[in-house]
Design goal:
heterodimer, A: 9-stranded mixed beta sheet, 3-stranded antiparallel beta sheet, elongated, B: alpha/beta, 3 domains, 5-stranded parallel beta sheet
Chain lengths: 328, 499
């Protein structure tokens, strides 16, 4: 071996850094530091459901319980720019599925994805978030605490992007096939034209997963993609969360009893809201009650989880309210 | 020979008595001012010289030294001119008088010897009175402000000549009868009547609650739904100032040069434009002037298009919202400016205005929208009591809206109950006083705790809601705070932004 100068030693060390085994070791270390582990296509833990998709992710980075990846799962996807209607529907469907024992799969994005994960977490159920980014960079940052809750409740965070890799626009589209792959059915709750959720629906159709779409008003831009999926027979229409469960083939569990009885005004408000969502302003007109009683009544209903304004002025009845109405 | 007269200087919004000492001695002719004079005070040399000559007196061709005591306090403004000129006359034996021992002199001199108004006359007159002066001579234009100070005998004058004749005992200046407090620039003459607000009953109700208890309120909604109209209507809903408050407000407005005439007992309503600088909003500058936050003391501060304000300007309001005072720290001192106000905000939820409005599309990019919404920082959001989301009103809504007079009467009654019970608005109730004596029964606390848990509220939020509930009970005339009061208070609680 010829004599090596200082520069040559450094060069060899640099070469060592490109050694695949060394790289793999480092990635494994950094993934473990982020609370995850590496699962390759050669491992037995590699989810069975993903063996059919194409291109199959060679490596998965998983935080949380890998068991969740083998359970019966349904994906709920939709636009980040969701309306109150979309958020209410996503919450309701995710809640129903979670209570029926299904794992809810989504992409942890703002809007519909977040509402679906949150509803599953609220029901204490397992849910899987497929990230477009590495495990140590939860995107969007606003959902960091939601991601922690998902792991805490036995769910999982899944990514095919190694820690340290850069994230680009294509990564967002690529993870859609994993969402579809992990699920036996995909429900598109609300999607405008050219929404990423439509790509997930297409990916689901390509690998033979059932596709469902929630219809919206024909003048709502946010629902155009969903309505088109239905019109083109690319997705089954969802007429109610109960019918969706029947179609997927899972049994509804009995709802927990609603705590205490409602006052006359609260009952009246709830009946009006079940008929059609509305703002305080509209409810004053529709019930004929003074502003003060409408306001306190709605607030109480919100505290009891029977209505939700989703950050706007319009109040939507929740699944619990619909169940209560059937009991009453 | 030596002579001295008393004048006063403004520091922050308070007056400090200043003794003007004049020594006329042999030496090179000239006029020297010492005692940390600012540039306006230094220029008094030229004004005083000309005013003396043009009033028919002589400027002694001697060495004249003027000292402004306390000598270590920086002095600003032109209010010392009159005292200097009078003391020079006494020191140069052109005027013989005993009056300077019991009469303070305040005013700026014009070159022809006439007197010009100075800012902060109320603070200056109070300081002079507190320093033991029985009488104060002020420029005629400052008369009404000066006369509003309790216990002061104020004699307005129009020229230096008049003042000299008064001091010499030849022609006495008239005493101005005590006046009501002038509060300037309430700028609520153009306040809209509530009757002109169509629909929006939920928001009207929230506004009524906010004004009645002086809670901070924000209106969020798309353009054209009446946010600004509602907020401006608050100007005439605020109940009248009481005696002590009026004195304080007038003094601040007088320092800012805003007390134009006796406007009366109205609470200030300030609506600065969103391009305002941080200093102009909370006060500051080289000579520490009160900002809009102080001008809104005991009244309301309305920030229209809140999210267009500079983020640092908005965050600078956090201190005064908590403590009711702006503290401006300088190397040598800290100036405290009173700034206890009710905050009114109105803004669009996103740049296009249609975010989270049911049945409408928001056309903003996600990033742009989030950056825009982040301008109202979490801590600021947490200091609000009510956030009302407004939606467009359908034209079919019956237009029989209550007028300002009707609502103001209810607010007046609720206000009276608060003053009677605790002597301050509900918004200022300390946590320790959210107890049985203030209408919070054990059962109410239980409800509050349950709701806090159900809705995931912080303790600060729970306390803020409790204060709002107290106001709702006061509007209803109820001694006790009931569960439904709490529920209504919680409906408009600030929440995390919609995801």
């Amino acid at each position: 071996m010829p004599h090596l100068g200082g520069d040559a030693v450094a060069a060899v060390e640099r070469l060592g850094r490109h050694d695949p085994r060394e790289i793999a070791r480092r990635i494994g270390q950094r993934t473990a530091a982020a609370g995850g582990r590496v699962i390759t296509g050669l491992d037995v833990e590699y989810p069975y459901a993903l063996r059919t998709i194409d291109p199959r992710p060679p490596t998965l980075y998983v935080a949380g319980d890998g068991e969740a990846l083998e359970a019966r799962a349904v994906a709920i996807v939709g636009t980040r720019r969701a309306s109150g209607y979309g958020l209410a529907t996503a919450t309701e469907i995710a809640d129903e599925l979670a209570r029926a024992g299904m794992v809810v799969v989504s992409g942890l994005a703002l809007g519909i994805d977040g509402a679906a994960h949150r509803a599953a977490v609220a029901a204490g159920a397992r849910t899987i978030a497929v990230l477009p980014s590495p495990l140590d960079r939860i995107y969007p940052p606003r959902h960091r605490s939601l991601a922690r809750d998902i792991v805490r409740l036995g769910g999982a965070l899944v990514s095919e992007v190694a820690i340290g890799a850069s994230v680009g626009r294509p990564d967002f589209a690529r993870r859609n096939r994993i969402i579809a792959g992990l699920s036996e059915a995909v429900v598109v709750v609300e999607a405008p034209d050219r929404s990423g959720a439509l790509l997930t629906a297409a990916a689901a159709a390509a690998i033979g997963r059932e596709t469902y779409a929630v219809p919206g008003p024909i003048d709502a831009m946010a629902s155009r993609g969903c309505n088109r999926l239905i019109a083109d027979h690319q997705a089954e229409v969802v007429t109610s969360s109960a019918s969706l469960l029947r179609q997927i083939g899972v049994a509804r569990r009995e709802p927990p009893p609603v705590a205490s009885a409602l006052s006359e005004v609260e009952g009246q408000l709830l009946r009006h809201l079940l008929e059609r969502s509305g703002s305080v302003e509209e409810l004053i007109d529709r019930t004929g009650q003074p502003a003060a009683s409408v306001a306190s009544g709605l607030s109480l209903l919100e505290a009891r989880g029977l209505v939700n304004p989703f950050g706007g002025a319009t109040f939507h009845p929740t699944l619990a309210a619909k169940r209560l109405a059937q009991v009453v | 020979m030596l002579a001295n007269a008393l004048s006063a200087s403004v520091v922050g919004v308070d007056g400090i008595p200043v003794r003007v000492e004049v020594d006329v001695s042999f030496g090179l002719p000239g006029l020297t001012i010492v005692g940390l004079p600012g540039s306006a005070v230094l220029e008094a040399r030229e004004r005083v010289r000309s005013a003396l000559r043009n009033s028919g007196f002589e400027v002694p061709a001697r060495r004249i030294t003027v000292n402004l005591a306390p000598a270590d306090l920086p002095k600003e403004g032109t209010g010392h001119d009159l005292a200097m000129a009078a003391a020079i006359l006494v020191a140069s034996n052109q005027l013989e008088t005993e009056e300077l021992g019991r009469t303070a002199l305040i005013g700026e001199l014009a070159l022809d010897g006439s007197l010009r108004r100075v800012p902060g006359a109320m603070a200056l007159v109070s300081a002079a009175t507190a320093a033991g002066m029985r009488e104060v001579i002020v420029p005629a234009e400052n008369g009404p402000e000066g006369a509003a100070v309790r216990g002061a005998i104020v004699r307005p004058a129009t020229s230096f000549g008049e003042v000299v004749r008064h001091l010499a005992g030849r022609e006495r200046l008239a005493v101005l009868a005590p006046r009501d407090h002038p509060t300037g620039a309430a700028n609520c003459d153009d306040a809209p009547d509530l009757a002109s607000v169509i629909g929006q009953r939920a928001a009207r109700r929230a506004l009524e609650i906010a004004v009645a208890g002086r809670h901070n309120i924000a209106f969020s909604g798309p353009p054209g739904v009446g946010k600004t109209l509602l907020a401006r209507a608050a100007a005439t809903l605020l109940p009248a100032l009481d005696e002590a408050e009026a004195a304080e407000v007038s003094r601040i407005h007088s320092v800012a040069g805003l007390a134009e005439g006796p406007i009366g007992w109205r609470r200030p309503f300030r609506a600065p434009h969103h391009t305002i600088s941080t200093q102009a909003l909370v006060g500051g500058g080289p000579h520490v002037r009160p900002g809009e936050a102080s001008l809104a003391h005991h009244g309301a501060l309305f920030l229209d298009e809140t999210l267009q304000f500079r983020a640092d300007a908005l965050d600078a309001l956090r201190g005064p919202i908590d403590s009711g005072t702006v503290h401006i720290a300088r190397v040598d001192r800290v100036v405290a400016l009173p700034a206890s106000f009710m905050l009114l905000l109105a803004y669009n939820p996103c740049p296009c205005g249609w975010w989270a409005v049911d049945g409408r599309e928001c056309s903003c990019e996600d990033g742009a929208r989030r950056r825009y919404q982040a301008r109202l920082s979490g801590p600021m959001r947490d200091r609000l009591d009510l956030i009302v989301h407004l939606e467009p009103v359908t034209m079919s809504v019956a237009a029989e809206a209550e007028s300002t007079a009707v609502v103001a009467a209810r607010i007046e009654r609720a206000w009276g109950r608060q003053v009677e019970r605790q002597g301050l608005p509900n918004a200022g109730l300390p946590v320790a006083q959210l107890d049985a004596r203030h209408g919070f029964a054990v059962a109410t606390d239980g409800v509050l705790e349950t709701r806090g848990r159900q809705m995931g509220l912080t303790l600060r939020r729970v306390h803020r809601a409790a204060r709002v509930a107290r106001t709702i009970a006061d509007l209803e005339g109820s001694e006790m705070v009931e569960a439904h009061h709490l529920d209504e208070a919680l409906l408009h609680r600030p929440k995390a932004l919609a995801a």
